[in-house]
Amino acid sequence: MQKLYLVGTGPGDRELITPKALSAIKNATDLVAYGFYLDLLGELGRGKTHHDLPLGEEIQRARLALELAASGKTTALLSSGDIGIYAMASVVFELLDRQLQGQENAAQWLEIDIEVVPGISAMQAAASKVGAMLGHDFCTISLSDLLTPWESIEKRLHSAGAGDFVVSFYNPRSKKRDWQINTARDILLEYRPAETPVVLGRQLSRADESITVTTLAELNANEVDMFTLVSVGNSETRKIVNGDKQWVYTPRGYKKKLV
Amino acid sequence: MQKLYLVGTGPGDRELITPKALSAIKNATDLVAYGFYLDLLGELGRGKTHHDLPLGEEIQRARLALELAASGKTTALLSSGDIGIYAMASVVFELLDRQLQGQENAAQWLEIDIEVVPGISAMQAAASKVGAMLGHDFCTISLSDLLTPWESIEKRLHSAGAGDFVVSFYNPRSKKRDWQINTARDILLEYRPAETPVVLGRQLSRADESITVTTLAELNANEVDMFTLVSVGNSETRKIVNGDKQWVYTPRGYKKKLV
């Protein structure tokens, strides 16, 4: 049977890759991913055919994975984080959908047994490093306007503000997109205090990890790049300092209940 | 050094517990959790002191974990899913915060080295089982009004609707709370189509797992219990059927870009 695994490999730390993801990678003869992720696999990737495609070519990568699996090769398509969250899984199902609608010429794709293996997403890694930022209702917003018009993103930012959700920004910045995160900050400042805690996580759980705790007013595109996860607290999120350790957490609710 | 691990053990499947979580459990001499979760550990839990407290006693459980760690016992406080998402981690930091504000009498808590280990949350497990429901912007809303007034939750439901977020409901129902999920459905129906796909995941990744795909109009409290994760698609989420297999995915964006 043709088999395609869609595998989330977590934020980077080998200790955060699930056994299920490791098994999928072990079973596969062919791995499809960015070269960068393939390097991270080290030993695990040995003896397998690596298919590396440059960043940005998501559709070609998904097609390649489907083609390889359809040809009988047990294939694993890898994304860092959770492959189901802003990653390759939805691209694969979009292509499958196109085939079902007769917009592709790849009937053999429909024979593939697809298995999705979730992974720890960047917002979870960042939250765990600083405490419990995602302790109450939260949302995620991608600031990339390549596939979503900026007006839709802006509307969503207002909704996130009005609903007082903790907000995690994915794709906060790229070489060509440098102003979006500052605009997002300004919109959220209409709804929550300037001193709202903000966590910047970069290269999470990797050797060169950096975590910065700042405030919403001080959030600035200059300190954000395409590898940064930005999480903004809600109106109740608190930063606490215990000696040289700082924590950020969002309480479970809004009632000032006696603990 | 006093050590307290806050560990997310994932949705239930042993293959979805991270190696980091397993190491934390192995290092601990004392485990604090619901009896139910302790049972799931099987072998892993052997030779350790188990501290079981009934469901609902979150604060006592967090206090107990802090007290055990402060007394010098390497302790792991466990939650299923991600301990940072609607779970015990924020309760522990709330207590620490109270101590820092002089509202507790437990100075030794401040000496504890706390380490948070994230886990796969229920929404991720559900999404992976049906495809890629979380492929674009999403939010989570707890429908429990024990600690958050219903008016706040209702406001948030409207924000989620207006922002067209994929919505995952945690704590959708309990014995005493039976109408909230139906009200949530009615609010979302003001913003998105009746046929919007909805996924109900119960006992995810466990032996008695059940996954149901329905529509927003058909979502009903009768089919939901306290172990159910409910995820509602956004206006672009699609259900596709390939033979006897059905998938639900949310496309990456809103532009009808040629794939």
Report what the structure shows.
Two copies of one chain form a homodimer. Chain A has 259 residues and is α/β, with parallel strands linked by helices. The first copy, chain A, has two domains: 3-120, 3-Layer(aba) Sandwich (Cobalt-precorrin-4 Transmethylase, domain 1), CATH 3.40.1010; 123-249, Methyltransferase, Cobalt-precorrin-4 Transmethylase, Domain 2, CATH 3.30.950.10. Chain A is built from seven helices and 13 strands. Chain A has a five-stranded parallel beta sheet, sandwiched between helices. In chain A, strands 7-8-11-9-10 form a five-stranded mixed beta sheet, with helices on both faces. A three-stranded mixed beta sheet of chain A has the order 6-13-12. In chain A, strand 12 (238-242) and strand 13 form a beta hairpin. In chain A, helix 3 (58-70) crosses helix 4 and helix 6 runs parallel beside helix 7. The longest helix of chain A has 13 residues, at 58-70. The first copy, chain A, is globular. The relative contact order of chain A is 0.14. The model of chain A has no long low-confidence stretch (mean pLDDT 93).
Text of the CATH class of the largest domain in chain A = Alpha Beta
Give me the CATH superfamily of the largest domain in chain A. Tetrapyrrole methylase, C-terminal domain
Biggest β-sheet: strands ordered side by side in the sheet of chain A? 3-2-4-1-5
Helix content of chain A: 25-40%
Structural class of chain A: alpha/beta
Instruction: Give the mean pLDDT of chain A.
Output: 93
> What would the CATH topology of the largest domain in chain A be?
Methyltransferase, Cobalt-precorrin-4 Transmethylase, Domain 2
Kindly estimate the percentage of residues of chain A that lie in beta strands according to DSSP.
Answer: 15-25%
Number of domains of chain A: 2
User: Please, how many helices of chain A?
Assistant: 7
CATH architecture of the largest domain in chain A: 2-Layer Sandwich
Shape of chain A: globular
Oligomer: homodimer
